[in-house]
Amino acid sequence: MKNKIIPYNPKLKEYARALRKNSTLTEVLLWKNIKNKALGVQFHRQVPMLDYIVDFYCFELMLAIEIDGNSHDFRYFEDSKRQYKLEDKGVEFIRFSDYDVKNNMFSVSMSLEKKIIELKTPLKSPQGDNTHKEVKVESLKEELIQSHNRIKPFIHKTPVLSSSLINKMVDANIVFKCENFQKMGAFKMRGASNAILSLTDEERQRGVVTHSSGNFAQAVSLSALNLGVKAYIVMPENAPQVKKNAVKTYGGEIIECESTPQAREATANKIKEEKGASFLHPSNQDEVIYGNSTAAIELLQEYPDLDVILVPVGGGGLIAGTALAAHYFLDKCKVIGGEPMEVDDAYRSLISGRIETNDSFQTIADGLRTHLGDRNFPIIQKHVDKIIRVEEAEIINAMQLIWERMKIVIEPSSAVAFAAVLKCKEEFKNKSVGIILSGGNVDVKNLPF
Asked: What's the predicted TM-score (pTM) here?
């Protein structure tokens, strides 16, 4: 175990004591839950470290629990910088919001238990053979490489295409990483494969469950089919029928729910309890994020001189993985997100410093209607340059251009990053630009053009 003691500013000692005596309701609720759960490790409250006070901390695992609430707004960026310094010293953070602690303690407990098990369990081999042979991972970069090695037998190395006409149109050198040619038609195959391959044999026998509007549902179903694992798929009732049909084809068992994030999570949690299945999050899980990073890793291997990579932003799993890949494999390469104006929660989150949600989900880019999570948001804050918002008409125009000029099929969500380039041509003029076309699962009977 790590069990490393990190020094702190002595001036914080008395302040930490005062915070323990004047805990917020949320802190009290979470502390009671931690004490009652018998997690097998000991946490301490209000622990001073460097120039920061961590809400809860386990010295054995070097695991910090942070509660982000409304009172944090004015100092969020300052807190984040101090937390990054602790991360550089090996501290791992798991973050919950005031709302989650007060209203969804079951989900909070499951996330915390999973994180503790993850930190106490030796890493498996890169091939995912579950021999429990410990693999020493010296850095996150090495973990990304191992994730790539792990999933290679189960994915396509997708092609990178370009169009001279499009290059002239935007006065830039653009290459498209075509994840629309990936197995099941989207990049989600990468994250889903890595997540399932990272499970133990016993966990696989109990099956997996996820909630998804389409692409991750298909990815989990196909990955599970390839590995002989039962897949329970929670889908909103208004998900495209073409995606529901694909899930059934891959052997996934569909459980429909209302089209809200709350309904998705509640239904998935119920199945997890009843079946003992492992929950796979479409975008807010480390193994999924690391798997997603492999698309950008492959792109940078072929084009190591890129100035910027653009990706669509929905739940944040792809842009977080892409940002990690760019940071560790080509640090000079910027990462920019494209997001529909109608669901611009990621854009607003970077401004406010906290995870925002959407009141409306009225966008043609159905795969981007979800919001960021506590695992991917810190990565996005740290490594993503900016997010460009685009209108619905701009998304449709970009999608149509790809279809007409490159003769390839992409879905609306996939067109958002290209729409951002078309909207801000001057920003990308004379630059080498990579765009990840995230998927091609579109209902051809219901095209917007």
From this structure: 0.70
